[in-house]
Amino acid sequence: MGDVEVGPEPLTFEQVVMVARDGALVRLADTAWAAMAGTREHIEELAARPLPVYGVSTGFGALATRHIPPELRAKLQVSLIRSHAAGSGAEVEREVVRAMMLLRLRTLATGRTGVRPATAAALAGLLNAGITPVVHEYGSLGCSGDLAPLAHVALALLGEGEVRDLSHRKVPAMVALRAAGMEPVTLGAKEGLALINGTDGMLGMLVLACQDLRRLLTAADLAAAMSVEALLGTDRVFAADLQELRPHPGQDLSAANLRALLDESPIMQSHRGPDCTRVQDAYSLRCAPQVAGAARDTLAHAELVGRRELAAAIDNPVVLPDGRVESNGNFHGAPVGYALDFLAIPIADLASMSERRTDRMLDKSRSHGLPPFLADDPGVDSGHMIAQYTQAGIVAELKRLAVPASVDSIPSSAMQEDHVSMGWAAARKLRRAVDGLTRVVAIEILTAARALDLRAPLRPGPATGAVVGALRARVPAPGPDRHLSPEIEAAVALVNDGSLVAAAEAVTGPLW
């Protein structure tokens, strides 16, 4: 894993994940040093003038009408960070905070914020030292940037507040800085505002969610294929010529996955003859690529929004190449908030379809010969009855999480900030939704694998059989009731780390 160079150029999703999750080091590009040095000169010049400039020599928000004299401007920036570090609630995950720090660093590196190169270098130093400021779940309205979360990051640069060190211990920021050989930053004109005025928190969570969903949608196709096979469904509906009649790209990819996963399946072959009276399957089987495909297309849109935002330089005011310092509204989180909310809808729907397939496998009147609840001794054993309850409970929550946050707005700052995006809230609920979908898909795979085993002596196809084999390395074959929760968690872990999809791809080649 190499370093990630941070400069005016956009970062990629992969680079964000490398730093946020994998702990990759960062370094400021030469172009970043030059860009920051150039615009900092303009800020210093404006700070010396008597004319008020927002963020340089005035108060903030509704207090922007006050001109701050030079002798109070250092206090102005420090007071801004202290007062805005007003978060509350649970700690935000380390990967989210690191993503937020990296994305703020990248905006600083564009030179459009006017910070000193040394201040940006200090933020890079926090990342490289593994120091993660303690950021709380509540505090951002997603407008004027993710103010409170970013203020907690900036507070650590001042040597104040709490952080997690490289060993994940919670310690005072000054203790962690000194242990890393770093000195606290003394903020200059405009720098406090520049450190907190961006959509970096919600964008970081969008990037991480997109990366997770890209992998998870393939696992959802895998679960659907296993269920179709276990329920003696047909794969004819996934034929390429049928998919071409409705040319949505995601649907085409999902159907291609299903065809590859079900190829050469003895179970599928066992009921292709003229004696088969089942003309068509239930929607949760037959329409799997239509729903999973629409989810893929929604994800593609969210990724487009993310790439655009990764190319942005968000601050207010901004320093333009000609030296002008201009106020703007680019900090408003609507573009990112909408994408975050949009993704929660197909997540809920995909999970709902997955749960319906699981329920079908457990119902002896609809499972075409499988024992009730896939139990070893029905009545004595309950099999996977309550695993479906767990799915149903998660699906119900996912439907609630699909209600958009971005349609809400609570005015703030004495009505100066009279419309806010709630993008941070949209991001927080999306993270919970991604986790929920992971669990629902894992339970479907766990149930379908049990059903496939119970179809013996008929055997699943090479790809789905490889998945059952990979699962059996962690979860025993069907038998009397066992403590089921650890088996569910094992399946969740195998979905999360990509092991089950990798097992299938060892047979099929790359899946989409």
From TrEMBL:
<dbReference type="GO" id="GO:0019556">
    <property type="term" value="P:L-histidine catabolic process to glutamate and formamide"/>
</dbReference>
<comment type="similarity">
    <text>Belongs to the PAL/histidase family.</text>
</comment>
<dbReference type="InterPro" id="IPR001106">
    <property type="entry name" value="Aromatic_Lyase"/>
</dbReference>
<dbReference type="Pfam" id="PF00221">
    <property type="entry name" value="Lyase_aromatic"/>
</dbReference>
<dbReference type="InterPro" id="IPR008948">
    <property type="entry name" value="L-Aspartase-like"/>
</dbReference>
<keyword id="KW-0456">Lyase</keyword>
<dbReference type="InterPro" id="IPR024083">
    <property type="entry name" value="Fumarase/histidase_N"/>
</dbReference>
<dbReference type="InterPro" id="IPR005921">
    <property type="entry name" value="HutH"/>
</dbReference>
<comment type="pathway">
    <text>Amino-acid degradation; L-histidine degradation into L-glutamate; N-formimidoyl-L-glutamate from L-histidine: step 1/3.</text>
</comment>
<dbReference type="GO" id="GO:0004397">
    <property type="term" value="F:histidine ammonia-lyase activity"/>
</dbReference>
<dbReference type="GO" id="GO:0019557">
    <property type="term" value="P:L-histidine catabolic process to glutamate and formate"/>
</dbReference>
<protein>
    <recommendedName>
        <fullName>Histidine ammonia-lyase</fullName>
        <ecNumber>4.3.1.3</ecNumber>
    </recommendedName>
</protein>
<dbReference type="InterPro" id="IPR022313">
    <property type="entry name" value="Phe/His_NH3-lyase_AS"/>
</dbReference>
<keyword id="KW-0369">Histidine metabolism</keyword>
<dbReference type="GO" id="GO:0005737">
    <property type="term" value="C:cytoplasm"/>
</dbReference>
